[in-house]
Write a structure and sequence with these properties.
It contains 6 helices and 18 strands. By secondary structure, it is of the alpha+beta class. It has one domain: 2,3-Dihydroxybiphenyl 1,2-Dioxygenase, domain 1.
């Protein structure tokens, strides 16, 4: 039976290896199909050993998450309640109001009103050295620029780029950022893609990330994105109930609080988009849809530490 299982694993590894030949234009980390490769990565970086709550952000790392909601203050309050945090709302006059979710006094996410009657969605920011150059690279790699570069060079220059499957990120240059991590934060990011291989090819070529397969998630074509060798995000195949690709932040909680967090969200008016399920890096995740229609993933704080590379 052991030989049969090994043969099956080899067949799956060979199939994944052939699929990965499509990624010849990307910088891939050495692929180790030996069982336990990701487990060794986990052991090398114990879960939140020092409970660091805030880390600096360097190029190629997610720096901020923003909710675009028809009811931004309510959406911010929903997330704050889920994470046992608070909300601070500032009136920017002609620019409208901006709500900030705070946990332990640290900034976790922002919320503002949707424009042009667009559906509620997340806007995830990635720090880059040169916005205009990255827009050109994105187009050359088969992606698109959804929002042209704007803002002041060296201060807050930004644009929105999308991969060929439709998943988008906001790239921003200038200034210094820190982001909150661990339990009680948006502590992880995952791309739910209708074509994970194509998404990996694109984002690795744009940000100069590397990628490695997650053996425990091979059925969902799961991969780990690495920035300078450090884990920054993951990608998995979207389920049949998820008709489009999109980046989703994950509200991370301690393992013993996961079920209570999901129940709390339902009591607050959310519905389940994807039921709680096992996850190769976060143990368990669930996609919930809060009353405004905004999707949010709830998961257990990462086994693999997230840090700016």
């Amino acid at each position: 039976m052991q030989n049969s299982r090994k043969n099956g694993d080899n067949t799956l590894a060979d199939a994944l290896s052939r699929r990965l030949e499509l990624l010849t234009t990307t910088r891939l980390a050495p692929i180790d199909f030996e069982a336990g490769s990701v487990s060794r990565l986990r052991k090398a970086v114990p879960r939140c050993a020092n409970r660091v709550r805030s880390v600096p952000v360097h190029p190629g790392t997610m720096s901020w998450h923003e909710m675009h909601s028809p009811f931004p203050e309510e959406s911010a309050a929903f997330l704050a309640e889920l994470l046992d945090g608070d909300v601070a709302t500032a009136d920017h006059g002609g620019g409208g109001c901006y709500s900030t979710v705070l946990c332990d006094g640290l900034h976790v996410a922002g919320a503002l009103h949707t424009t042009h009657n667009r559906a509620a969605a997340w806007n995830t920011f990635v720090r880059v050295p040169n916005v205009d150059h990255l827009c050109s690279v994105a187009q050359a790699r088969g992606g698109s620029v959804r929002v042209e570069p704007s803002g002041i060079l060296g201060l807050d220059r930004r644009a929105v780029i999308s991969d060929p499957t439709g998943a988008s990120l906001t790239i921003i240059a200038g200034g210094d950022d820190r982001r909150t991590v661990g339990a009680g934060a948006l502590g992880w990011d995952e791309l739910r893609s209708i074509d994970p291989v194509e998404s990996v090819r694109f984002w690795c070529s744009v940000f100069e990330w590397t990628a490695m397969p997650i053996l425990e998630a091979r059925a969902a074509q799961g991969m780990l994105f690495l920035n300078g060798g450090r884990a920054v995000a993951s990608v998995q195949q979207a389920t049949a109930s998820e008709p489009r690709s999109r980046w989703l932040p994950i509200a991370t909680v301690r393992g013993e609080h996961f079920d209570a967090a999901v129940r709390k969200s339902i009591r607050s008016g959310a519905r389940i988009g994807v039921a709680p399920t096992a996850h190769s890096l976060l143990e368990r995740v669930a996609i919930i849809i809060e009353p405004s229609g905004l999707e949010l993933v709830v998961g257990i704080e990462p086994k693999t530490a997230i840090a700016a590379a």
